[in-house]
From TrEMBL, chains A, B:
The keyword Cytoplasm does not apply. It comes from Terrabacter aeriphilus. It comes from the Bacteria. Keywords: DNA-binding, Transcription, Transcription regulation. This is LacI family DNA-binding transcriptional regulator. InterPro entries: Cro/C1-type_HTH (IPR001387), HTH_LacI (IPR000843), LacI/GalR-like_sensor (IPR046335), Lambda_DNA-bd_dom_sf (IPR010982), Peripla_BP_I (IPR028082). GO terms for molecular function: DNA binding. Residues 14-57 form the HTH cro/C1-type domain. Pfam families: LacI (PF00356), Peripla_BP_3 (PF13377). CDD domains: HTH_LacI, PBP1_LacI_sugar_binding-like. Residues 13-67 form the HTH lacI-type domain.
């Protein structure tokens, strides 16, 4: 679907060409496409490389003759169970997807895969006709497999694919992370804060990158320094570590923009540990408006993002693709500021 | 597998008999067994009823000719996303299952289904050759579908199937909930507590039933009254409601045995709301030793259960069944008391 529709242009590469480039038989390519468990990891890699090079798209009509519809949709989450269960963001997205699929004939097939990239067996499973389509969240920019999955079956991403692995034909639902972050930092500036650091998520995730850009936008517009950055990992422990590093390196810090409420919850603990008051000494703005925003001693001012709505729209977009419709390639959801006590 | 092995006794019912009893064609029964999406819900129900009545087990060798191995294992969780993500017990079980499957060729296919019983589409999916086996947790006693799933494919339960839907050939991993609960209540009795209420989980779940029995065992052995019971639902909000009801009905209450840490976390909040001190006025023992045991103002004394280990053993047992081995039908894991400040 790199051309963005279910129809394919004339002159597309054939299965025979894939076999020739890969140096294997036609039957072997067919086995890879149909996910036979009898393909070795080496052969799988060679054939996948050839498929990627040629931008080969299996003929859906031909496939449907050998592989019946599974009536199942994968949700691929390249995170370990600890992080998946630890961040309420995922619960909201899954709830939204489930709600939308309840009105369909499809079941949800949740695939927790290894952080950063799926294992070989998961790749084989997803390419093997076991699901009719896939939803992908929490993907990382280095993951070429997930980025190219849209060549083999209908895929909708939650959050735009990043960098060199993005394809023009990708379908994705995103949150306006950059504008949301900018709004949060503008709020801190309006409250008179001048030395505003940020705690980001991993550098290979679009939500991290965009929220950092929004933080930078607001500081630049206000003529303030945008040099205080600590890298977090979207966990509470990571928020604690990053905050301790920031306050120790920058004793003049008077505000923090933190890229998730879970990390901001860690920031609250770390500031308490250092004897700093929130918001008197250090003001905080988080991101999510998750249950963590109201769980600590100080209510978090935060940027609310519609995670459940993202799940609904992701599922809806995929169902439309599976029904042969042409949904928009990109849907962007808005955020808004929720004021509490921390800023 | 109602006879408890992968081999079947002679004279077992045939597909033809199922068709005769159901009043449908042989091809229709075959479609049901192979999960064709073209079977109506009515026909599915009639054929499933006939399969259950005859205790029919599809011939595995014959099936493998038409349905290749999927190399995937379902984890069926009949809970909504809110409860699944809200209780750290599930995160631990999933982590354990994932850890064990990492060393296998199988992928984990997580199926969140409707509370109390899977939807028709999920039933069809599970019976339709889309998974090679299933793990089931958080099942409820009224769920005849999940209880009979073991007739159609290898199934391992986390927690024993309850009551009239239990089959002698079931495979399950359980925690010694009754002994654990008894140990927790004995601890309260040893601390001089005399009016000890309990907050249970749902009445249709084995963990709830067994923990209530253990509470009763300890009170009976100590000659104390076992009349103070409030029904909870394994959520924090349910723990708050049940605690308020108990302290309002029984002002002399001096201790609570709560069947999960998440509910006990709610109990702490409710007691604070009523101005009661923990443990001075009311002592609490929870169950799980989850992160909630250490999250509140007062550390919870609790019965630790090995949830991650349960996941590991469930997956291991299913892998052994899939490999044609004969693992034990029942494995029971031990619990132990963890003392903190609440009792």
């Amino acid at each position: 679907m790199s051309d963005g529709t279910l129809a394919h242009p004339m002159g597309r590469p054939t299965l025979e060409e894939v076999a020739r480039v890969a140096g294997v038989s036609r039957a072997t390519v067919s086995r890879v496409i149909n996910g036979s468990p009898r393909v070795s990891a080496d052969v799988l890699a060679v054939v996948e490389k050839a498929i990627a090079e040629l931008d080969y798209v299996p003929n859906r009509a031909a496939r449907s003759l050998v592989a019946r519809a599974t009536m199942s949709i994968a949700l691929v989450v390249p995170e370990d169970a600890h992080r998946f269960f630890g961040d309420p963001y995922f619960a909201d997205v899954v709830q939204g997807i489930s709600d939308r699929l309840d009105d369909s004939d499809y079941v949800l097939n949740l695939q927790l895969t290894h952080p950063s990239s799926p294992s070989e067996k998961t790749k084989r499973y997803l390419l093997g006709g076991n699901v009719d389509g896939a939803l992908v969240v929490s993907h990382h920019s280095g993951d070429h497999f997930l980025a190219s999955l849209g060549r083999s079956l209908p895929v909708v991403f939650g959050g735009r694919p990043l960098g060199d692995v993005a394809n023009p034909g990708d379908y994705y639902i995103d949150v306006d992370n950059r504008a949301g972050a900018r709004r949060g930092v503008e709020h801190l500036v309006a409250r008179g804060r001048r030395t505003i650091a940020t705690i980001t998520g991993p550098a290979d995730m679009p939500a991290s990158v965009d929220r950092e850009l929004g933080w930078r936008d607001a500081l630049t517009a206000a003529g303030l320094d945008a040099g205080r950055v600590a890298r977090g990992d979207f966990t509470e422990a990571g928020g604690i570590r990053a905050t301790l590093a920031l306050v120790d390196a920058h004793p003049d810090l008077d505000a923090l923009f933190v890229a998730s409420d879970l990390m901001a919850s860690g920031a609250l603990l770390a500031l308490e540990e250092r004897g700093l008051r929130v918001p008197d000494d250090v003001a905080i703005v988080g991101f999510d408006d998750s249950p963590y925003a109201t769980r600590g001693k100080v209510g978090l001012t935060t940027i609310a993002q519609p995670a459940q709505q993202m799940g609904v729209v992701m599922a809806d977009t995929l169902l439309r693709l599976l029904a042969g419709e042409n949904p928009p390639h990109v849907t962007t959801l808005d955020t808004h500021l929720v004021e509490r006590d921390s800023a």
